[in-house]
Amino acid sequence: MPPLPTSSISGSFQWPGPAYLDKPACVKIGLARVITDYATYAYLCDVYVIESHRGRGLGSWLVRCALEHPAINSLKRIALITHDAKEFYARLGFQPPADPEQYMERIP
Ligand SMILES: CC(C)(COP(=O)(O)OP(=O)(O)OC[C@H]1O[C@@H](n2cnc3c(N)ncnc32)[C@H](O)[C@@H]1OP(=O)(O)O)[C@@H](O)C(=O)NCCC(=O)NCCS
Q1: Does pTM surpass 0.90?
Q2: Mapping DSSP to helix (H, G, I), strand (E, B) and coil, where does residue 53 land?
Q3: pLDDT: is 56 or 1 the higher one?
């Protein structure tokens, strides 16, 4: 599992807990987190399933749990950035911005 700074974990919520366990092996096999103001906007990031457990629906399940979570399921916008998993997220209802011209970012 890629290491994340403690501040990035404490500034977001995870579900159903810090990770979920592969019983009886009890190892962490996946992670996802959401950064949100709980009112208008959420950003989904660090969706990760360890290689040995991919292709079993766990990544989709993690994302669905996030989208259905009461903390964010009524928000106007849930965003993410992905380099090569567009098809994975498209199946979960994500699409490119309707008007990319409206989107801006600042990368120092
Ligand atoms: C992306 C990731 C979380 C998917 O986890 P997973 O448990 O394998 O996902 P699922 O089993 O739910 O896959 C659902 C479908 O999406 C497809 N899929 C998975 N990853 C994909 C990707 N990167 N691009 C396109 N399709 C992908 C699967 O092939 C599967 O298709 P199928 O139902 O036709 O077999 C996992 O591959 C991963 O951790 N990758 C490395 C980190 C990463 O790229 N995270 C996302 C970055 S934003």
Answers
A1: no
A2: helix
A3: 56
